[in-house]
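Take a look at my tokenised protein here and describe the backbone shape.
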Amino acid sequence: MAENKRQRKSKSGNKEDVKEMATKRKQGRKRRGKDDDKDDSEMITSKRCLFDESLSDTTSEDVFRFLLVGSNLTPSEFFADYWEKKPLIISRQDPDISNQYSQLFSLDILKRLVTENNLKFVQDLSFCRYVNGNRENLNNKGVIKIKNLEKLIAKKSATIQFHQPQRFQDKLWKICCLLECYFQCLVGSNVYITPGGSQGLAPHYDDVEVFILQLEGEKHWRLYELPVEDRLPQDYSRDLDPATLGKPMHDFVLKAGDLMYFPRGTIHQADTPEHCPHSTHITISTYQHNTWGDLFKQSLPSLVDQMMSQRRELRTGLPIALGQPLDVSNHKDHIRFLLDMLADGFNNSAMQNMQMDFVANRLPPYHSTPEELQSAGPIPTMKDNVKLRFPDFMSIIEMTDEEEEEESEDVEEEENEEEDGTKYVYLYHCLQNDRHQHMMSADDCQPTGLKFGHDHLVALKQLNHAGKMGIAAKSLKLGQSESLSMLVSMWSEGLLQVVQD
């Protein structure tokens, strides 16, 4: 897979792999108790409900369970045995799933979108082919016309890469926004359409966790392992020379309705068999730059500043080296002591920057019209039961004036002098995010939200934990006038509604 703007961005051919996988599944079924049997039943249910537009209560868990249908794995087993570890290939031979997959995307859907929208070369669609060890860029400039599309497919055997099609295809929007709720980080997608007898990309690896759904036709895949010390890379690779890769660890064909998962760093290449008119598959990718190392890079500078103001040990001078450069290798025990001290200072606020970046750039909730996200129902009073409308699309973040100043360059200097160090609580949300910009902008975005005094924190958490049944406004642990003002503000923002009898 090639790089996305913001995020890098069988039946099986290997009989031994398939046989081993089938044996493990049978053993897994024997190991499970009643609770896990219930989980399998719920997975099958999600298969039937995921694409039914009449069912508005599809959850993020439903979507993820749908991905695993046919594997006989519960989500917990998948994360324990496969996530960040090894590929999973699910060969289904299920006409129902094949039919549902075809609704997600197809060559016909692409032609319709090209006709209805001003899709552009490179920005929206990229065209390439991989022949005799060389990748050729077949992009033109400007808006793509149907005749451009058909010519590149028929005469150039070009592979089409559609960047972030969830911006235009509603079913993909719904899936990606719910998976963002599930993973609590950005989820992107790419569609690849490759004519028969062709290959689009050179062997390479990516820096994201990838789920591949085969939508049309067939795709022949070869997967290769990186050395253990190089796995889970921080960045994607250049094009790799096939001669240096050795024998693939997996060599198989995905057919319509099949699914594959592989961890970031898995070297892969894929081609469409000669007998197949074309192949269409979608990659759903996530967990780019969502590691412990990324958390440390974002949080340690502010954490060190905070802890230095509290702990004298961190303010103690470095040892005098008597004219020689300091050799820190002689002080490892003391460094470990100081690092343990920093670890004690870690709390949920350390996730603050990553959380705000996620809220600012994620998809808004799935909706048919903008009015669906605006204030709904009667204005709340203190006599009402109230509930959050989109709890999975909000984040409650505590912040001081000093931290807010670091996030926004628009804060007036005199305001900072008056309120420096005062704590507030922010209710950030993504309702106003632009679906059509999802994963396409490299600019830093600030999340939208409401600012309350820190004394509102407990009441906001009460609302967050109340669920679908809601909570009586009068039971909020906040003064009556403050409670009413907070509820009306949230209602005006489209975040809260009165529970109707």
Remarks:
- DSSP finds 16 helices and 17 strands in the chain.
- The two ends are 50 Å apart (CA to CA).
- Residues 2-46, 410-419 have pLDDT under 50 and may be disordered.
